[in-house]
Amino acid sequence: MLPSDLKAHRMEIRTSLLTGGPRMTKVDAKALVEAMLFAAGRPISVEEMSGISGLDARDVLDAAESLLREYASRGGGIEVRAIEGSFVMQVRGDLAQAVTMIAPRELDSSVIRTLAVIAYRQPITQSELARIRGNKCYEHVRILERMGLISASKKGRTRELRTTRGFAEYFGLQSESPEFLREMIARKRDMIGITPIYESLARRLGIDYVVVNPYRPGDGDAARLREIRLLVASPGYAERIREHYSGELVEIGTSTFSKLKEGVERLALQLKDVAGAEALIGEIDSVLMEYRAMARGLGPVRPLTPIAREIALDMHLDIGENGVTAAADYTGAEADIIIPTHQEGQIDIIERIKQRYDAMLEGLRQRRR
């Protein structure tokens, strides 16, 4: 039977089981449970089979366990497995890899990406997953739970997600351990490298990433630089980075909101399925409008360093020789306003820029008092 025929046949049986038609003759419990396992195409619990069929849960369990033994004794290509209180009919584990290419695809690519994030970062809270993959992940989680590929446990106000044994069985993997799964995913995926200051940006965009130092790479960094296909780094370091990395490079400025927005738009064009790009661009536009409104009438400014000039222009401040002097902290220049640039790497990318704009506004307000 071809994969397309198999899927249609499963749907036929599933419809028949759920609707009661066509009219069913008397069948024994084992035949009915076997039909449900075949139709489901996923791990299905004893309770669910009992609810669908009207059979007693004890009869369902006895039938499923009998089928498990029967299929095991056959030595055929199909097996019945018990997985965390559920049963599944599937291709035998040692044959799964051989038939992967012709198996019907039941998971959408976006659901697969969500599942990969869970597998790679487990245990991961659902709230953290939403920050990485966006709100669509909640529907993905429901799908993956129904299929028995992940489990969820209560943790505070959210839930903690992990892959199940069914995940390894579904993909024909040799082990279900998180370490093994992380290694497998790292080998298979297109890895994105980021320098530490962009970690919050990657989380906001829903990018699966590894943190790397491309400027003075250690042994671990050197290995990761060979694996990644794209690197996100600060502008002005391309020559030094190219000594250690030859792949795609996207430079994203963090001196102003406008430069950050340009960088996010550029990165979104390079990558597919960037869950948080639209929301982040909208947030940047909104925050910048607020700062421009707060800056109205506070100038002029006399910038002594490039970053001070960029911030003044981004807030639409007047610039003039008689203005309040402003300079970046790294220069050591004497100025009325000192712009912070040496901030903690872990600070959120939006907050990083806000601190610089706040310093400019506070300095101007103090001069006006």
Describe it for me?
The structure is a single chain. It contains 17 helices and 13 strands. The protein is α/β, with parallel strands linked by helices and 369 residues long. The strands form four sheets. Strands 8-7-9-10 form a four-stranded parallel β-sheet, sandwiched between helices. A three-stranded antiparallel β-sheet has the order 1-3-2. Strand 7, helix 11 and strand 8 form a beta-alpha-beta unit. Helix 2 crosses helix 4. About 5% of the residues have low confidence.
Sequence-ordered SSE layout with sheet pairings:
Elements: H1 3-19, H2 29-40, E1 44-45, H3 46-53, H4 57-74, E2 78-83, E3 86-91, H5 96-99, H6 109-121, E4 124-125, H7 126-133, H8 137-146, E5 150-155, E6 158-163, H9 165-170, H10 178-188, E7 192-194, H11 199-205, E8 209-211, H12 219-227, E9 230-233, H13 238-241, E10 248-251, H14 257-270, H15 277-295, E11 301-303, H16 306-314, E12 324-328, E13 337-339, H17 349-368
Parallel strand pairs: 7-8, 7-9, 9-10, 11-12, 12-13
Antiparallel strand pairs: 1-3, 2-3, 4-6, 5-6
Helix pairs in contact: 1-2, 2-4, 3-4, 6-8, 6-10, 14-15
Strand order of the largest sheet: 8-7-9-10
Query: What portion of the residues fall into strands of 2 or more residues?
Result: 5-15%
Reported for the largest beta sheet, the result is: 4 strands, parallel
- Distinct helical segment count: 17
* CATH architecture grouping of the largest domain: Orthogonal Bundle
Mean pLDDT: 81
Low-confidence stretches: 13-26, 100-104
- Into how many domains do the coordinates divide? 4
CA distance, first residue to last residue? 83 Å
Q: Just give the CATH class of the largest domain.
A: Mainly Alpha
CATH topology of the largest domain: Arc Repressor Mutant, subunit A
Content-based structural category: alpha/beta
CATH superfamily of the largest domain: Winged helix-like DNA-binding domain superfamily/Winged helix DNA-binding domain
Q: Helix proportion of residues, in percent?
A: 40-55%
The arrangement of helices and strands along the chain is HHEHHEEHHEHHEEHHEHEHEHEHHEHEEH
